Amino acid sequence: MSSEIAAGPVDQPQSAVERLHIAGLHAPADAILSVRDMNVRFNTENGVVHAVRGVDFDLMPGKTLGIVGESGSGKSVTSLAIMGLLPSTAEVTGSVRLKGKELLGLSDKAMCEYRGNELAMVFQDPLSSLTPVYTVGNQIIEALTIHNPTMSKQAKEARAVELLAMVGIPSPKERLRAFPHEFSGGMRQRVMIAIAIANNPRVLIADEPTTALDVTIQAQVLEVLHTAQEETGAAVVMITHDLGVVAGMADDIMVMYAGRPVETGAVDDIYYNPRMPYTMGLLGAVPRVDVAEKSSLVPIEGMPPNLIHTPTGCSFAPRCPLAADACLEGEPALAPVPGPAAHRAACIKSGSLGGDVDVHDVFAAPPVPVSRFDAIPREERSTVLQLKDVRKHFPLTKGALLKRRIGTVKAVDGLSFDIREGECFSIVGESGSGKTTTLLEIMEFHKDQDGEVVIGGISNKQAADGKTRSAMRRELQMVFQDPTGALDPRFTVYEVLAEPLQNAGMNKVDTKKRIMELMKLVGLQPDHVNRFPNQFSGGQRQRIGIARALAVNPKLVVLDEPVSALDVSVQAGVINLLDKLRAELGLSYLLVAHDLSVVRHISNRVAVMYLGKIVEIGEVDRVFDNPRHPYTRALLSAIPVPDPQLERTRERIILRGDLPSPLGTPKGCNFATRCPVFAALPAAKQEKCLTLEPPLEQVAPSPAARTLAADPLPALDQRFACFFPDGELDEDMLVVHESADHHAP
Amino acid sequence: MLRYLAKRGITYVFMIFLTTSAGYFLAVSSLKPALLEQERIPRPTPEQVANSMRLKGLDPDLSPWERYVEWLTAILTRWDWGRSPNGAFINAEFGDRVWISTRLFLASIILTLVIGVALGVYSAARQYKFQDRVITSYSYLAYIVPAPIAYFLVQLGAININETVGERIFFVTGISTPGMEPGWAQFIDMLAHYAVPTVAITLVGWGSYQIAQRQYLLDNVNADFVRTARAKGLTRNQAISRHALRVSFIPVAQSIAFTIPAIFAGGFFAEKIFAWPGVGSWSIDAISLQDVNAATATLAYGSVIFALGAILADFATTLVDPRVRVQ
């Protein structure tokens, strides 16, 4: 026990009371929300988890503070502690002052006066955050009733309509009577925002408000949050793990690690001049969608610490490449870094780190792997997977006993593409666009399928017997999205990896040898083979999943959202591994991902899907740098980039509405209902979009290139399906934020 | 809604027809009332037995199919469910017994539901506290103890009270004292007869609702939408009672359908022990007395009760859950 007492905060000699007193005196008078020395402890069966350790910040009226960190860093707990919404088992100490009034220690009842009134919150998962049995109007009006008991019924209804209109819900008056399940995820998050801003809060806390949403919907919701902030003048605390999301929104950033703020400062200082290795690592670990980079991502090795044990040194030291002995002696305080701005970092080496230090030097990023296939032109490599006009239509039926067909869902509608040796081909699109169905159709491999699937020269049309099918399984393997769900918790790693090998008829000795080989290949310690999956971290489990897929030496690996369940720092390591394996083993990948930055980083070619059809396909840099289809353009512009200056001036296409139901797809172009080009076209040209289906057409080389080149140019690897790619965009759907309302202090 | 009910009604009528017909074939081919007749003294001749059976519409010489057609025609044309081997008319006997069963169970079913759900909410709000532990332990005990034993215990308790007071307050068996004058005295007599069986059945029955309601409410107490409600400015208890309660009642409402027929099926213990000659005890008697028509009629009644319970559950679910659309 004595060691625990000795391990107290070495760098903070004053008592908590003194610190609070001083902090109170030093808090800026005009701060709307001041948090001082906030600590949150949870009593668990394993011991006391110290989830938040000494958070301090001041929030100025109308400003936005971004709290960035990975899962378990304490960012959500901080926000719930401010709101007083933590379970009663949590012990919260320190001080939270809203306009000078202390909130910590208030009873649940006393807190209710502030919650939903001056202090409001938007939660992460819009699907479960609204009560399913009450209408949306009912739930908005409830928020008004609690704090304005005297308000008349008509006035409340009028205000609810006004709020729904403000967050961009069409025909708000009718939608008041709708239930949450009649709204899509994005629409529900708008309703959540409407509830939060109902009473014009002074502080709005948004906890990962867009994490559960598609990129196009994320762009819409961020836009709504922006409007909400402008309308109410509220100060916003934006909590996220995505450095791109806050780059354009936040004025200040607080980076959290292991329950502590490790770096705070103005947004530009944090992004362009990080002084804490963890922040640098985070920035380097995120691939960029707007840059055709040819460098590896920065992996941060290891795992965040267990917060049951009080750290005796810098909590990031075990993962930090710069860690020295001095780092292990006491946790470094959050101290000002040299420079004029209010920029603080908790690192004893922050003085030597700065804007000119390259993160790739600090964290030993592996060299860019080169595949032996890179030198061979694509046309000369053999084809490992080919899809010819694959369709999957689901009949939609009605009735219990006698089923009537009332429509068809065209989940996949005429898909053709091929994957060559050594290349990574990606499919991107919103949820519901048919990406996963495409994968399932490939895995199905049945002769009665509509369309032809050829895997390693074996066609599904000749796959009548089990022998052909198992031959095909050796050509193609799959890695799943959720590494925890994909591994049997009762199998040791050895058993997980041995299963495919035994299926392939390998003897015991060879199996053992191969498993050791595989463990080394994916960067796991070979002596861990007898452990169970729950003894590994998420990133390590995904490595096991990759090892299992590689066990039988497949030519093609299908990756279904392989990194979306992982934290940013871990994700980088897995992406680097995939890159390395592709080069070393000459693998081909078929990748499905919603994160376009990841896609750009590891793919060679990409297909953009919309409602079961490919709307644009081609070489990844061509498609991302020079998108031709309006949908691709919108998709790309919707992705936030971790670059504050660029974010502030970027033009953004905000698509209206959600992905339409694939039920009643129109005769002409599927995208016409949401298309920004279509909206600006004259009626005569609109007619063409509505009646004719645009075919996938080759992009012609630009006229300038044609005149310059003496020989006839080879056809560009980019095709798209749109009649008017050069049409003007509808102005209403374009958003550019004036840098004036987000100037860096 | 009406159209939906009509549709469900037709489906259930079809199902009741199927189960009842199947039941009839089973009864007619396995129950032989003529055998019992032969035990009478003086022993009747086979011709006499066959003749008496024929008169009651229970001709043992006809094939099962012929008897089925005859039986079904009588029901469809005259609503005549036939006669027992002792000559009693099923229709008359049935009416009396249904009324007795309904009187015995209706009050208990309602009390079971209300008390079970209320205690479930109460104990969920006090999870792991003393009250919760006591109530939930009791519910599990009620689950384990076989119903007849619990009924006997309640009877013993009532007898004990009677003895302690020295006066007969409760009747532990029977429906009413014969020959009472209508009026206040008769009403008191009725209560005295009702109290013991109603209390016994309720005490045994509420446990399952309490456990289910407590469980479903606890599942929802920490739901995201309760947190949203609190973030709006409701206290924790307000948020739970306004938002979590209704959501947690949805699965409970669905389970009601399948407990009502269960209570009916288990009812013959209560009817036997408390000597209320209802449908439950009749169904057992019908089998031992080789009574084809009575056995089939009680089966049909069971199916009807089951269908009513299912429709009631659909109704309750649509009432509390807007996501369920009625088509």
UniProtKB/TrEMBL annotation, chain A:
Its main location: membrane. Coiled coil: none annotated. One of its GO terms (molecular function) is ATP binding. It holds the Pfam family oligo_HPY. Keywords: ATP-binding, Cell membrane, Membrane, Nucleotide-binding, Transport. Residues 35-283, 385-636 form the ABC transporter domain. It is a peripheral membrane protein. The keyword Membrane applies. It is found in: Cell membrane. InterPro entries: AAA+_ATPase, ABC_Ni/Peptide_Import, ABC_transporter-like_ATP-bd, ABC_transporter-like_CS, Oligopep_ABC_C, P-loop_NTPase. Belongs to the ABC transporter superfamily. PANTHER family: DIPEPTIDE TRANSPORT ATP-BINDING PROTEIN DPPD (PTHR43297:SF2), OLIGOPEPTIDE TRANSPORT ATP-BINDING PROTEIN APPD (PTHR43297). This is Oligopeptide ABC transporter ATP-binding protein OppF. It comes from Pseudarthrobacter polychromogenes.
TrEMBL record, chain B:
Keywords: Cell membrane, Membrane, Transmembrane, Transmembrane helix, Transport. It holds the Pfam family BPD_transp_1. It is found in: Cell membrane. Residues 98-317 form the ABC transmembrane type-1 domain. InterPro entries: MetI-like, MetI-like_sf. The chain crosses the membrane at residues 12-31, 104-125, 137-154, 191-209, 244-270, 299-320. The keyword Cell membrane applies. It is a multi-pass membrane protein. Belongs to the binding-protein-dependent transport system permease family. This is ABC transporter permease. It comes from Pseudarthrobacter polychromogenes. The gene is oppB.
